[in-house]
Amino acid sequence: QVRLVESGGGLVQAGGSLRLSCAASGLTVSISVLAWFRQAPGKEREFVARIWTGTTYYADSVKGRFTISRDNAKNTVYLQMNDLKPEDTAVYYCARNMYDRWSNWGQGTQVTVSS
Q1: Would you tell me how many other CB atoms lie within 10 Å of the CB of residue 56?
Q2: Residues 32-48 pLDDT 10s
Q3: How far apart are CA 89 and CA 97, in angstroms?
């Protein structure tokens, strides 16, 4: 059974940094397509970043500020977020793609950026 557990969210001032973690079980992060999404209040869930083998891809809104990475030994995916802005405030979710569907999701972790 696949399980994704996010952690690391919190309250930070604009310009600050946070690192989110997504601990995976029931899958192997080194060969899986994994991504971070976020959902702000009153808005639809949006893509943030994706990692698959050695390839990463970012939404334009976070490019140059966020970095997705993984630790194969810990079977964990990370999202390093720097230079945070109030518009980055959202619940951040980790997800796994299978057969072109984001089929598994974590419970989310809240990130709040104050101005």
Answers
A1: 15
A2: 999 999 999 999 999 99
A3: 24
